[in-house]
């Protein structure tokens, strides 16, 4: 099988690293592809970060190196008989550790110390400012691989964990699970609210003024889902009016986050560049999924993480 590696994966890792990992497998030939429909047309499938309209005419299989596939027109893929797979299932550890880092930074005031260091200031916090994660509560909205990765690490820290998912079926590492209709109840009294849902019609603008108002004024919002899950203007207003203690944001309505965004200047906000899932082993994790699917395709089986 001949696979194209689209140049857009360079946003996450060097394309040549993935090519080497794929070329080591029997029966697979990997080729680096620029934005060239003709070159891609010689391939059976493409591994990509971005979506290009010409994919629909060029290949039979598209693999997204991200878990989210909101940028891919799934109805058109289905109409054209093109298979779409994603990379869900590989981000629980990396994103879980990133979220744990956000929560630790807020609890121990590390973000404030770092900012003070840039100003050469010896800034002692108020005596009642720092706290420990042990005994605090976290509400994880979305209990897929990423959400469960967050919940597992929060449990290690002695935190009380509640979760929200489409159906309130129990999850072993979560103390209490709510359905989407119980979202407001789940948000109340949680020191941290972590968003880990995919962007779908039902989750778009899921966190707006009413949901932010349901959170305590000493709560922190952490978004490692998609920017569209949050009404960003409402979040900015809530932060400006001290309705929240702070926020850690890895995703935004517009990326990169524009220079004029007020979020850059807020001391109580941690901004990261959509990097929560990044790891030096990312390309190896992608290669494992792709090669598994090459074997599945040869055996006539449903592909792993098949969306369409």
Helix-strand layout with pairing:
Blueprint: E1 2-6, H1 15-23, E2 29-33, H2 37-40, E3 45-48, H3 55-58, E4 61-64, H4 74-80, E5 83-85, H5 92-108, H6 110-118, E6 137-141, H7 145-156, E7 160-164, E8 176-178, H8 183-187, E9 192-195, H9 209-214, E10 220-223, H10 232-240, E11 246-249, E12 269-271, H11 282-298
Parallel strand pairs: 1-2, 1-3, 3-4, 4-5, 6-7, 6-9, 7-8, 9-10, 10-11, 11-12
Helix pairs in contact: 1-11, 5-7
Structural account:
With 308 residues, the chain is an alpha/beta fold. It has 11 helices and 12 strands. The strands form 2 sheets. Strands 8-7-6-9-10-11-12 form a 7-stranded parallel β-sheet.
Integer average pLDDT: 97
| Beta strands, count | 12
Oligomer: single chain
**Number of helical runs?**
11
SSE order, one letter for each helix or strand? EHEHEHEHEHHEHEEHEHEHEEH
Structural class: alpha/beta
Radius of gyration from CA coordinates = 21 Å
Beta content: 15-25%
- Which regions contain 5 or more consecutive residues with pLDDT less than 50? none
- Spatially, the strands of the biggest sheet line up as 8-7-6-9-10-11-12
The helical percent reads: 25-40%
Question: How would you describe the shape?
Answer: globular
Distance between the termini: 20 Å
Largest sheet: 7 strands, parallel
């Amino acid at each position: 099988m001949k696979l194209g590696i689209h140049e857009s994966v360079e946003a996450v890792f060097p394309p040549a690293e993935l090519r080497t990992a794929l070329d080591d497998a029997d029966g697979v030939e990997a080729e680096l592809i620029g934005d060239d429909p003709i070159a891609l047309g010689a391939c059976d499938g493409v591994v990509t970060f971005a979506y290009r309209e010409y994919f629909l005419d060029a290949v039979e299989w598209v693999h997204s190196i991200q878990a989210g596939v909101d940028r891919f027109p799934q109805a058109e893929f289905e109409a054209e008989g093109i298979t779409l797979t994603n990379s869900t299932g590989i981000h629980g550890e990396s994103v879980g550790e990133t979220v744990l880092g956000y929560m630790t930074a807020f609890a121990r005031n590390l973000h404030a110390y770092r900012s003070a260091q840039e100003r050469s200031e010896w800034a002692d916090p108020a005596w009642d400012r720092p706290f420990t994660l042990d005994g605090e509560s976290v509400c994880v909205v979305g209990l897929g691989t990423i959400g469960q990765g967050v919940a597992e690490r929060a449990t290690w820290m002695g935190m009380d964990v509640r979760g929200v998912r489409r159906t309130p079926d129990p999850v072993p590492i979560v103390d209490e699970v709510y359905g989407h209709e119980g979202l407001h109840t789940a948000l109340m009294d949680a020191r941290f609210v972590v968003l880990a849902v995919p962007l779908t019609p039902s989750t778009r603008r899921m966190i707006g003024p009413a949901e932010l108002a349901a959170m305590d004024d000493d709560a922190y919002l952490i978004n490692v889902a998609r920017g569209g899950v949050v009404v960003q203007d409402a979040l900015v207003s809530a932060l400006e009016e001290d309705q929240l203690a702070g926020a850690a944001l890895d995703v935004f309505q517009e990326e990169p986050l524009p220079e004029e965004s007020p979020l850059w200047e807020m001391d109580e906000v941690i901004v990261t560049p959509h990097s929560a899932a990044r790891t030096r082993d990312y390309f190896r994790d992608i290669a494992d999924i792709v090669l598994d699917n090459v074997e599945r395709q040869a055996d006539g089986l449903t592909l792993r993480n098949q969306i369409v």
